[in-house]
């Protein structure tokens, strides 16, 4: 396994962990999630739906790592789209003080796309 492949694999595992934490935080409506969503104009009633979408991405990444690489790639692409939307929501609402968080999640998802897009060696 090359250094690039190893780095992208680590990024994918970090993506799974970070998004898994975020899904749990959304499901329990953690204070920081409710506050952040309120700042960007998102009603708390939408959090379970966002958690379901993000959770599906996490499950897809895990299944991808288990050997179904096309599903992992699809899940990673879905998470990239999800976090482009999150970054866009921050920009639209001019909430820039914490834009680093959805940007970091976007970067992790992009790394997962890179991992699953690599040909198997």
UniProtKB/TrEMBL annotation:
Alphabetic keyword roster: Membrane, Transmembrane, Transmembrane helix
Species classification: Bacteria, Bacillati, Actinomycetota, Actinomycetes, Mycobacteriales
GO cellular component, one term: membrane
Pfam families in UniProt: DoxX_2
Localization per Swiss-Prot or TrEMBL: Membrane
Name under which the protein is recorded: Transmembrane invasion protein
InterPro entries in the cross-refs: DoxX
Signal peptide feature range: none
Top-level taxonomic group: Bacteria
Species this chain originates from: Mycobacteroides immunogenum
UniProt keyword Lipoprotein, yes or no: no
